[in-house]
Write a structure and sequence with these properties.
It contains nine helices and no strands. The protein is an all-alpha fold and 300 residues long. The longest helix has 29 residues. The chain is rod-shaped, with a radius of gyration of 32 Å. The relative contact order is 0.17.
Length: 300
């Protein structure tokens, strides 16, 4: 019976930001896949003995970790990555604000030019057309203060009126054609971005939440880490020992990065849950004692 053995060092995953959490899990998968590659390249390794037949023919047999667990972790990570791309909705919102400002400015410029067209024209026919156009544009005054989606529809009507045949002479005389084109382009860009943002949000609602995915990934990680610990304890090889050492190094680096940035720097938009701050575990005492860690790991 071993009186001294390696443990998987504790790490409080709930205290990590989403980015830190995804990196930790991604690196864990890489460690598993590296061990897979090493096993495939080194034939003639000792057969793992077990009271029960080994349930995996792939995955990482030396750690008793099936491929389905690794695949489940990779699938959850992909979903979490996709969900975090929902920040594109925030980017789209910022873009919408810029487009909205530009179309508001163009609309105000066009309306102001129409309002003062008479000051720029001398031809009687053009003056009459300008007066008629001024009357036609009155319903659009204050369009920039409308609710944004209503503004989109209203500006389409405004552009359509400006392009009517009876106003063509006045519009050309004042030189508004290119500004009307720009106004239409910005308004349609706003409509396109609005539609895109709605589609992204609809897609995101179909995915699991970050919280659900973090719980799933945490359970998968803890189960696989427990299998790795047990395999190394009961059927240890140089490969299993190296895996535990590499994993502990990764945990230590994660803890150090967390302690450097401090918990106060966790972003508000990254979901976290209550838990202990990742810190270095106390040095274990002699004998069979091991550091106490939060008892939130699933039974394996």
């Amino acid at each position: 019976m071993k009186l001294e053995y390696q443990i998987v060092e504790p790490l409080s995953l709930p205290r990590l930001t989403n980015a830190e959490f995804m990196y930790f899990m991604t690196r864990f998968v890489e460690l598993l896949e590296n061990m897979q590659d090493s096993s495939e390249q080194e034939p003639g390794q000792p057969e793992i003995q077990s009271v029960e037949p080994l349930a995996v023919t792939d995955g990482v047999p030396e750690l008793y970790i099936p491929q389905e667990s690794i695949d489940a972790m990779k699938a959850a990570l992909e979903k979490m990555l996709e969900l975090n791309k929902e920040t594109r909705a925030n980017v789209a919102t910022q873009q919408l604000a810029g487009v909205d400002r530009r179309r508001d400015g163009l609309a105000a410029f066009v309306l102001n030019a129409v309002d003062h067209a008479a000051d720029l024209l001398s031809d009687e026919a053009e003056l009459q057309a300008a007066a008629a156009l001024k009357t036609a544009m009155r319903p659009y005054e204050g369009v920039g203060k409308m609710p944004q989606n209503q503004e989109t529809v209203t500006l389409r009507g405004m552009v359509a009126d400006l392009r009517k045949e009876q106003f063509a002479a006045a519009v050309e005389a004042v030189g508004l054609d290119k500004y009307i084109d720009k106004l239409e382009a910005e308004n349609e860009r706003y409509a396109e971005l609005t539609s895109q943002r709605s589609a992204d949000r609809s897609k995101a609602r179909k995915l699991e939440t970050n919280k659900e995915l973090r719980i799933q990934l945490t359970q998968l990680y803890q189960a696989m880490a427990d299998h790795a610990f047990a395999a190394n304890l009961l059927h240890g090889t140089d490969a299993t020992e190296d895996f535990i050492n590499d994993l502990n190094s990764h945990i230590e680096e994660t803890i150090n990065r967390f302690n450097l940035r401090g918990p106060e720097e966790t972003k508000e938009d990254e979901e976290t849950s209550d838990g202990e701050t990742p810190t270095e575990p106390e040095t274990p005492g002699e004998g069979t004692e091991t550091p106490e860690e939060p008892d939130d790991r699933p039974t394996v």
